[in-house]
């Protein structure tokens, strides 16, 4: 048997790739180029030999800091380009590679230029906004002043003082000095302050003015006809022009402070209409000049950003790669005396030749006098886990890795999940109409695979696209199971011929419950369409799907136990085979394997035996006669024997393994006492659970091992019952999906179609389509997906999968994302 197993060809994904721990001794002059070439190859995972040092104590900390600063500048340019709304496509012609120092100088010059232009543009924009607000205040406030003069009877006092408080309004103040220089203050006359404020602050502003002046003021307001850009947020905001009439110096001081607190901009408006018109003309002239200046500045800034944008993608890639190279160099030990860097890392065994060739090329290209020394080291700790996957198997491997990364070279569940996962999903989702809908979605993703793979997708769409082959297989298996269930949106079809049943006479032409007789061979594939609508439809389908769920569950759990045997055999753990695999197989199949056998015999013979009664009384009264529940000769003594084997298997799992491990430890301890030198081969023979030559010696604690084995045994015994029951979710979800489809078809579509009103029919079709798309195709798909996930993670993988490994993460430029900056 062992010779037959040894001759079986190896499966690519069954075991992770064999890994080798290697050491590199790299001369300083070729270190950068060597690491760069290794990053392009992407098959070496470096170990951090400076884990005890902080990032600032490492050799190349300054270079990493420089790369980080350049990344910040590049992100600044990208934000500026996006903010300006420019679309800069990379140049098609090949640009020469640029040195890091030259790139750093170019980025510094470009940043200084852009920052200076932004500063000038911001100042001009602020002046433009102030002039624009001044123009609006002049236009709107003049109406209030004319109205105030009309009501001032006999008062010829000129309103010569227009107070304003805007420290930033320097240019306009100097420009219009003759209009804005107030004369001697009139302490007893009527004054006013005009300005503009955000609309959302107006009510609180007016209430504060009223309280501060105790109502001794007149507040007038009017909305501005145009929105004004807020310099702080660059958003267009709606503002309100106001004029406050008051009397007294104390009131003036309070109003100015309130305006400053609320961010209201105050502007001087002369009372004389002639001066208003002259001031308005000057403001409009300044606005026209500023618009031309701003447009010219924007064009110049866009030209500068375009010149950067053409090379931005390449520069970002270059800086990202350089930073990754220096981060990797910081993981190496720097030997000052020998002027070399020493590094260690894991690589797949098949990649040693490629790595050696790459290092030779790096030595030649860097004109180094000394080559890179590359040799294999003896591994102590567990190597990383690496599976070579393709587009189809990668999604299934990710599903397994979400539970836990496989231990180095243990059996990989993803190999079997490629088939079992979509199949168990389809058992719960079986409807070939819904399967066709899923198939169309999967084919759409596959047809646009090349285009979608180059786009940045949202989180939900990225998840769908990554699992496109999973969806394809789920759809194909759903069509297969739907044909077995004979359900197309819950409607049966005579696809594979006519029904095996017909009416006894003409009086039962419309009957579904009585009068049908079997007159021909059974329906060739799947469920006979005549079961639909019959009185025994639900009991028949319940019995079928429940028994089928148990058979599938027992088969998958046995597969998990068989994989545990191959794991133990691969790692040379004979104790696990003798005291774990064999009793577990005996216990599981003595009870539930026997139940599966009874189900198959009952199907084949058409017996009316009650399997519930058989299994219950197998424990309660094993020696009692079975009577009508006997399915085959010798069933009673077989049940007694299986029950005894199940009882024997429990202590078999519990006691021998801890004592055997204790004996092995004692022999090893005694051998060391007498000075016998052990080698890694001897240690491998006497340490069944070891997968590698050499390990750290740990203190042997018999009580801890015994308690662990006790927990493991109890968990398996109880889990055999609970896991078998857990597979009944296949029956429950399949029944729920079928019944929901039937309800939507009969109570929505057929009910609406029974009316002659076209509007009711359209509403019925719309509701049926909505329910099918969102409930059956989205919610039910997600539900079946999660339940199939649970069956694989717990019931199947729990039998053999440790999942305590760690992923192989090679240094590769292809794996560097934008977030790594």
UniProtKB/TrEMBL annotation:
Physiological role: Essential component of the vacuolar proton pump (V-ATPase), a multimeric enzyme that catalyzes the translocation of protons across the membranes. Required for assembly and activity of the V-ATPase.
Coiled coil: 100-127
Official protein name in the record: V-type proton ATPase subunit a
Signal sequence, renumbered to the chain: none
One Pfam family here: V_ATPase_I
Keywords, ordered alphabetically: Coiled coil, Hydrogen ion transport, Ion transport, Membrane, Transmembrane, Transmembrane helix, Transport
Keyword Glycoprotein: no
GO biological process terms, semicolon-separated: proton transmembrane transport
Membrane topology listed for this record: Multi-pass membrane protein
Record carries keyword Transmembrane: yes
Subcellular location per the Swiss-Prot or TrEMBL entry: Membrane
InterPro entries: V-ATPase_116kDa_su, V-type_ATPase_116kDa_su_euka
Lineage, broadest ranks: Eukaryota, Viridiplantae, Streptophyta, Embryophyta, Tracheophyta
Listed transmembrane segments: 423-446, 467-485, 548-566, 586-603, 638-655, 758-779
Family the UniProt entry places it in: Belongs to the V-ATPase 116 kDa subunit family.
One GO term describing the cellular component: membrane
């Amino acid at each position: 048997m062992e010779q037959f197993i040894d001759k079986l060809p190896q499966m690519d994904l069954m075991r992770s790739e064999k890994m080798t721990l290697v050491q590199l001794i790299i001369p300083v002059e070729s270190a950068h180029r060597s690491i760069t070439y290794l990053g392009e190859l992407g098959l070496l995972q470096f170990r951090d030999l400076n884990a005890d040092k902080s990032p600032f104590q490492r050799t190349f900390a300054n270079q990493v800091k420089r790369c980080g600063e350049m990344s910040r500048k590049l992100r600044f340019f990208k934000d500026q380009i996006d903010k300006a709304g420019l679309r800069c496509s990379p140049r098609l012609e090949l640009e020469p590679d640029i040195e890091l120092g030259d790139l750093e100088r170019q980025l510094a010059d470009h940043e200084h230029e852009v920052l200076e232009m932004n500063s000038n543009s911001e100042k001009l924009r602020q002046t433009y906004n102030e002039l624009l607000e001044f123009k609006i205040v002049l236009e709107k406030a003049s109406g209030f002043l004319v109205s105030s003069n009309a009501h001032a009877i006999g008062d010829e006092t000129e309103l010569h003082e227009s107070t304003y408080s805007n420290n930033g309004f320097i240019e306009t103040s100097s420009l219009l000095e003759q209009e804005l220089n107030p004369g001697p203050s009139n302490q007893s006359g009527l004054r006013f302050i005009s300005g503009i404020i955000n609309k959302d602050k107006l009510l609180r502003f007016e209430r504060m003015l009223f309280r501060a002046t105790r109502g001794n003021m007149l507040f007038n307001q009017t909305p501005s006809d145009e929105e004004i850009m807020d310099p702080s947020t660059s958003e267009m905001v709606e503002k309100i022009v106001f004029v406050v009439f008051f009397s007294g110096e104390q009131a003036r001081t309070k109003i100015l402070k309130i305006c400053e607190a609320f961010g209201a901009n105050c502007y001087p408006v002369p009372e004389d209409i002639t001066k208003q018109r002259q001031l308005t003309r000057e403001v409009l002239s300044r606005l026209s000049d500023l618009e031309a200046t701003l447009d010219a500045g924007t064009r110049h800034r866009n030209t500068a950003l375009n010149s950067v944008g053409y090379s931005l993608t390449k520069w970002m890639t270059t800086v990202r790669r350089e930073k990754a190279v220096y981060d990797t160099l910081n993981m190496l030990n720097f030997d000052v005396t020998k002027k070399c860097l020493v590094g260690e890392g894991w690589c797949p065994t098949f990649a040693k030749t490629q790595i050696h060739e790459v290092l030779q090329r790096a030595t030649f290209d860097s004109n180094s006098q000394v080559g890179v020394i590359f040799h294999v080291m003896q591994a102590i700790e567990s190597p990383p886990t690496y599976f070579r996957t393709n587009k189809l198997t990668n999604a299934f491997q990710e599903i397994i890795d979400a539970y836990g990364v496989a231990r180095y070279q243990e059996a990989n569940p993803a190999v079997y999940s490629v088939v079992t996962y979509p199949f168990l999903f389809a058992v719960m989702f079986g409807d070939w109409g819904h399967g066709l809908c899923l198939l169309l979605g999967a084919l759409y993703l596959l047809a646009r695979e090349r285009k979608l793979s180059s786009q940045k997708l949202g989180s939900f769409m990225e998840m769908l696209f990554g699992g496109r082959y999973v969806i394809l297989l789920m759809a194909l298996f759903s069509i297969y199971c739907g044909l077995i269930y004979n359900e197309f949106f819950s409607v049966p079809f005579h696809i594979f011929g006519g029904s095996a049943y017909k009416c006894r006479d003409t009086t039962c032409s419309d009957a579904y419950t009585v009068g049908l007789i079997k007159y021909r061979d059974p329906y060739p594939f799947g469920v006979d369409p005549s079961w639909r609508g019959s009185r025994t439809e639900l009991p028949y389908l319940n019995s079928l799907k429940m028994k089928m769920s148990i058979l599938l569950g027992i088969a998958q759990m046995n597969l998990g136990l068989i994989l545990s045997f191959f794991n133990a055999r691969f790692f040379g753990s004979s104790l696990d085979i003798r005291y774990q695999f064999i009793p577990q197989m005996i216990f599981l199949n003595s009870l539930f394997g026997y139940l599966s056998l009874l189900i198959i015999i009952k199907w084949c013979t058409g017996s009316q035996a009650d399997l519930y009664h058989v299994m219950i009384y197998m424990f309660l009264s094993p020696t009692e006669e079975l009577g009508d529940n006997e399915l085959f000769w010798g069933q009673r003594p077989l049940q007694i024997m299986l029950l005894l084997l199940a009882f024997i298997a429990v202590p078999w799992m519990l006691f021998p393994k801890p004592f055997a491990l204790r004996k092995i430890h004692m022999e090893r301890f005694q051998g060391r006492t007498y000075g016998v030198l052990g080698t890694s081969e001897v240690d491998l023979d006497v340490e069944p659970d070891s997968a590698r030559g050499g390990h750290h010696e740990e203190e042997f604690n018999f009580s801890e091992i015994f308690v662990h084995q006790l927990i493991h045994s109890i968990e398996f015994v109880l889990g055999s019952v609970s896991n078998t029951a857990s597979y009944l979710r296949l029956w429950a979800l399949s029944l729920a999906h079928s019944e929901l489809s039937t309800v939507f078809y009969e109570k929505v579509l057929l009910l609406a179609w029974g009316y002659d009103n076209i509007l009711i029919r359209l509403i019925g079709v719309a509701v049926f389509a909505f329910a099918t798309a969102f409930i059956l195709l989205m919610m039910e798909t997600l539900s079946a997906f999660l339940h199939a996930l649970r069956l694989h993670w717990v019931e199947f993988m729990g039998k053999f999968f440790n999942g305590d490994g760690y992923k192989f993460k090679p240094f590769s430029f292809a794996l560097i994302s934008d977030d790594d900056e």
